[in-house]
């Protein structure tokens, strides 16, 4: 069987299963089996594959037919042009989240942040992407899941950033002391009862998805903590659902923070940036 024939058959199976991009899924899975980049594999699709490769490919296609995400099947996902290992203990990095990295880069055009914090680090994609762009910075990633923190630490080692990143298991910022110049967070922001696609609902970690009836519970917990965590020149960046910019902005402004909203590539609000406003100390809980 040639590569082209194998992909054609697999794409048909995946289309019948209701997958949205069956051809791309088939290409990525076959490239994974063959151990080569997808674009390299596509240079010569007339080349035959072995019986063992066919069986391995068919096994992966069968998993994808159940709507298991491709990233969990291959164990890898690209983010900010870097390759990250992912497992079912971590959310799968999405292109929309790159908006936070872009916003952080624009906030520190000259004087780079000395200390970076990533709350709910998951795979470590946000923290490690920012550290990759800021060579002199040191970062701390926090996650409630020990398994996720271990994945993030492994990604730091794979990217050569292990000397500039530390990962701890904790409940948001509860165990942290000191201040940070750049704070990143992609907290759960889906409201309870909201419908999700089958591959998200059945496979991604529930604790990283839902945050109370309106999806805002974790913003209400994290944003007041900026009183002790944010350095005088610091900026915090929160990923949001595209309908939540106004609500999250109000939470931040009630704490004396100034707010800027950044849109993703589709033009949807995706990141709320916060920094100390004139009334920061006066409005933060415990500083009245």
Structure description:
It is a single chain. By secondary structure, the protein is an alpha/beta fold. The chain folds into two domains: 3-66, Helicase, Ruva Protein, domain 3; 88-283, Rossmann fold (3-Layer(aba) Sandwich). 39% of the residues lie in helices and 19% in strands. The strands form two sheets. Strands 5-4-3-6-7-9-8 form a seven-stranded mixed sheet, with helices on both faces. Strands 1-2 form a two-stranded antiparallel sheet. The model is unreliable at 282-288 (pLDDT under 50).
Strand order of the biggest β-sheet: 5-4-3-6-7-9-8
Number of H- or I-type helical stretches: 13
Helix content: 25-40%
**Run of helices and strands:** HHHHHEEHEHEHEEHHHEHEEH
Portion in strands:
15-25%
The number of distinct β-strands equals 9
CATH architecture of the largest domain: 3-Layer(aba) Sandwich
| CATH class identity of the largest domain | Alpha Beta
The pLDDT mean sits at 92
Terminal CA distance reads 73 Å
Oligomeric form: single chain
Low-confidence stretches: 282-288
In short:
By secondary structure, the protein is an alpha/beta fold.
Which descriptors would you attach to this protein?
disordered C terminus, two-stranded antiparallel sheet, elongated, 39% helix, 19% strand, Helicase, Ruva Protein, domain 3, 288 residues, Rossmann fold, alpha/beta
